[in-house]
Please model this.
Amino acid sequence: MTPLPDSASRDASGWRGALSPAATVVSGLFASLFLLFLVAPLVGLVGAGAASGVRQLFEDSELRGALLLTTLTATTATLVAIFGGTPVAYLLARRRFSGRTLVVAILDLPLIVPHPVAGIALLLVLGRASPFGTVLFQAGLRVTGSVFGIVCAMLFVAAPLYVGGAREAFMRVDRRYEAVARTLGDSSWAAFRRITLPLSFRGLTAAAIVMWARAVSEFGAIVVLTYNPKVASVLSYDRFTTLGLNGALPVAAVLVLLAIIPLVALRALRRDE
Model:
């Protein structure tokens, strides 16, 4: 390789020296604008509506009812996902079978489908006009205009987050620990209960928190199935359409403040990782 002349080497060095600070400044500028774009709307919303929102928590029974309904339905949907999704996540983490990639893709599909479309799909399958919906209705479960419909919508759009997080948590557990337990006489279930579950517990909990937070914020699928009773996201939209921006600000600010709780819990779980 022919060495560069001294002048060319000095020029190249000079360009690097001149570009590096400029690139740093440009990168810093774009990063600052990016962070400002993400943070400013939330700070502005909390600053404009947090005080009145907290005050309305004591004065507005409809807001308290919507928050309670949101909490209960999101918790119910998360519990259903834990009991139903944990075996699915374990199977996907530990078994290799034909079509596994397709199954994972289908499970993730609700994450990218527009959520009003998700609501329409649920209405098609669980609505009273469908065979399954007819069976549910005869059993006393109505999907439209009901708490059951809210739970179904939350479960459908948010459960993939739990299954994906649980699958990763199981995959991080070293199989050799399970193999040692099996050689010591444990059954598959005992090895799962004594080894896999404790070692993956933190990841499973984080996945459940992420799912719960996503369920709380769901709007599109819920509003297709159930406008009343109102969860908090639907109430904020209702206040916006009926009372305008100022009427929606307190509800929206309270929702932002409540969203901080699962985020703090997640950071606490991942602090030692």
In short: The mean pLDDT is 85. The longest helix spans residues 6-59. The CA atoms of residues 2 and 91 lie 59 Å apart. DSSP finds eleven helices and no strands in the chain.
